[in-house]
Design a protein that fits this description.
Blueprint (H helix, E strand, L loop, with lengths): L2 H11 L21 E5 L2 E4 L4 E4 L14 H11 L10 H11 L7 E5 L2 H16 L3 E5 L12 E3 L7 E3 L6 H5 L1 E4 L4 H10 L4 E6 L13 H14 L2 E5 L11 H6 L5 E4 L10 E5 L1 H4 L18 H12 L3 H23 L7 E5 L2 E5 L15 H14 L2 E2 L8 E2 L6 H12 L1
Parallel strand pairs: 3-15, 5-8, 5-9, 9-10, 10-11
Antiparallel strand pairs: 1-2, 2-3, 4-12, 6-7, 11-12, 13-14, 14-16
This protein binds pyridoxal-5'-phosphate (PLP).
Length: 419
């Protein structure tokens, strides 16, 4: 069956044909590709067409598809069984490895996804502070928990409404929305509700609605406001963690959150999420503390073995190479785009993330994204796809480079673009 036939069949059995909405190619004039295999920086669909992959499973595959050492670790762990629902050594090793390298965390709890990690962090922040409201920023994504499926409402700064049906008005009322980059707005919310805010949640490198790089002074301002009002600062580093250097944006900026959430890279492509922070906060979690959290498959040996090898391979040299790969990829794309009708584009790059967007404006929040970005993206996406270059299938998603996007792949990219 070709991609189209597979998708038509899938539509019959699965809502929208997909198990996560962004995979549906909604609004694009082509069908989703059914991926049969991946190796290094390449994926191949069921029709045998090869693509250079810049989606990389939306981030986890920092070493590329089927990294041989990670694969070996998975196979080795499998030989001994794949879940025990009991203590096991790999998760201990991952915990120790991470904590010894990141100065602002002393304890970590593993779970199965970024969503679970944020969900736990929300409950934990509320449990620690005894407060119920949280601040979230317009354009930051934190997974699909109710507390975070909230968008800005009209009226007062911080007022909000649900962005999904099924989220109650009460839940929406506990999440206050601010625009990224505007410290005064956050200050106003704290002044209005000085004793009600449990935590600020932010992607310190917002990368889910384009790449909206924030100023150091802004992040520091949020840190100071949290300290002043007794709220927790939570960095959602599900994308940026282990990508912008091992210690993510916390270590990169030297601005330390009270809690941090991880996902994506931490499991090396297996389902892992985590919450981490100082012992005094983490001890609020069950079984020690009053905040409940649990997971049947949490810290399972296969995922943890993959995560461990994956993280151990992330040396300073690896990060230098990753950055170089990304700069080269971005330059190759830019050169081609400027001469082929995409002069309205800029490509924003930070570490191994890049974001082609049809405006030259400096972007700090989502209100600055251009109105016609969807149509422009469809043209770019489909041109790339036809040339065997796979971007994440949505105008708001960033591109992910990996260590597998090496000189050879860069040459292939250049060749595919120009022919
Ligand atoms: C992907 C993502 C999540 C959700 O993680 P899942 O594993 O998809 O549940 C949460 N926060 C951020 C910043 C993310 O990028």
């Amino acid at each position: 069956m070709n991609n189209k036939e597979l998708f038509e069949k899938s539509l019959k059995y699965v809502p929208g044909g997909v198990h996560s909405p962004v995979r549906s190619f909604k609004g694009l004039h082509t069908t989703p590709r059914f991926i049969k295999s991946g190796k290094g920086a390449h994926i191949m669909d069921e029709e045998g067409k090869d693509y250079i992959d810049f989606c990389m499973s939306f981030g986890p595959l920092i070493h590329g598809h089927q990294d041989p050492e990670i694969k070996e670790a998975i196979i080795k762990a499998l030989e001994n069984g794949w879940t025990f629902g009991a203590c096991e050594k790999y998760s201990l090793e991952v915990a120790e490895y991470i904590i010894n390298k990141i100065c602002f965390i002393e304890q970590i709890r593993f779970m199965n996804s970024g969503t679970e990690a944020v969900m736990t962090a929300v409950r934990l922040a509320r449990g620690i502070t005894g407060r119920s409201k949280i601040i979230k920023f317009n354009g930051c994504y934190h997974g699909h928990l109710d507390a975070m499926l909230i968008k800005a409402g009209s009226g007062l700064a911080g007022m909000a409404e649900a962005s999904s049906k099924g989220v109650t008005a009460q839940q929406a009322g506990d999440t206050l929305i601010c625009e990224l980059g505007d410290l005064n707005e956050v200050k106003e919310v704290f002044e209005r509700l000085p004793n009600d805010i449990a935590a600020i949640f932010i992607e310190p490198l917002p990368a889910n609605n384009g790449l909206l790089i924030q100023d150091q002074a802004y992040l520091q301002g949020l840190r100071d406001l949290c300290t002043k009002y007794g709220a927790l600062l939570v960095f959602d580093e599900v994308i940026s963690g282990f990508r912008i250097g091992f210690g993510g944006m916390g270590c990169k900026t030297g601005i330390f959150p009270d809690l941090v959430t991880y996902g994506k890279i931490i499991g090396g492509g297996m389902p892992v999420g985590a919450v981490a922070g100082p012992k005094k906060y983490m001890e609020y979690l069950a079984p020690l503390g009053p905040v409940y959290q649990a997971g049947t498959l949490s810290g399972n040996p296969v995922a943890m073995a993959a995560g461990l090898v994956n993280l151990k391979k992330l040396t300073p040299e690896a990060y230098a190479k990753l950055e170089k790969n990304t700069v080269n990829v971005v330059n190759i794309m830019k050169d081609w785009m400027i001469k082929h009708g995409f002069e309205d584009y800029q490509t924003i790059q930070y570490g191994s993330l890049f974001y082609p967007i049809s405006t030259h404006a400096k972007l700090k929040n989502i209100t600055q994204l251009p109105a016609n970005m969807n149509e422009r993206f469809y043209t770019l996406f489909e041109t790339f796809l036809n040339k065997g270059i796979y971007l994440a299938p949505n105008a708001y998603e960033v591109g992910f480079c990996s260590l597998a996007h090496d000189e050879k792949v860069q040459q292939e990219l250049k060749h595919r673009l120009w022919t």
